[in-house]
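Troubleshooting: if your tokenizer reports a length mismatch, compare your output against this known-good record of 323 residues.
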Amino acid sequence: RVFVLEQLSQGKTTNNEAAIAMGLSIRQVQRVKFRFRAEGVSSLLHGNSDLKPHNFVSCVVRDLVAERAGSLWEGASSQHMSELLFDETGVSISAKTVIRILRENDVDVIFSHKGPRKHRGRKRRSRLGQMLQIDASPFDWLSNGSILSMHGAIDDATGRVVALWLEPAECLNGYFHVLEQTILTWGVPVSIYSDAHTIFFSPKSGKLTLQEEMEGATVALTQFGKALDILGVNLIKASSPQAKGRIERLWGTLQHRLVVDMRIAGIKTIDDANVFLVSYLQKHNDLFAVSPEDETSAFLPAPGEKDLPFILCRRENRKAMGD
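Known-good structure output:
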């Protein structure tokens, strides 16, 4: 192009011939020739040459993302890393930019795309509190190699996590804490959807005590079931994990997000984790909860705080001896 413009400027070729040689229109050739005569060869450089794009990510940020991905943020998704970077530095970059940075530094990328949905989801309940899905998940929640059980409940209509509680193993105490947090914060739900664990459903469903028969019971109730019976909550048994897929998918999300957030917060013990979970719920729900079809809450009024300990407790029948 420089040779053609030099020939054109010296009058050795015409505008039409130069246009054919450079693949430009005659008017464009005239504009290029005018700038070439005024500025020389530098006029052929694009105006944005040597300028950084408006969305350029500095080397400092790139190095920080690569370093954090192998330490504090290990196991986090690219979207989560984008959020964590903004919280730490105030710099906002997209999840796709995080993926590019990780690939440039040979860091494995997880959750770079979503797979196809293989099951048609059940329609959500229409109102908040109509049905809660409840479950527990064993996992290395504190990133120290110990397997602990996270107990939780999620609202079916909104996907809002209403309570989380960590225990050494799945147990009645963990579910009582989840139920207590739910009742004190939201109220009494209409129904609870759970698996067939013996905490929820008695394996001796066909064997009733004389006292239970006299009280009109039709099925044997567990300690958890007795509490729900007093509260008037309907307990529904799920026939498969897919049936309560909302809370099953929640565990996958928390195992990659919550673990990283607790590691950053320096959470080392179960007691510290349970305190941290109270504030974490709002952050999680702001990201993932949706609006219900009907804005009217279905939660029922909660018992008084003084009465609740006498409902969420173990009940045993004892026989007094003569002495």
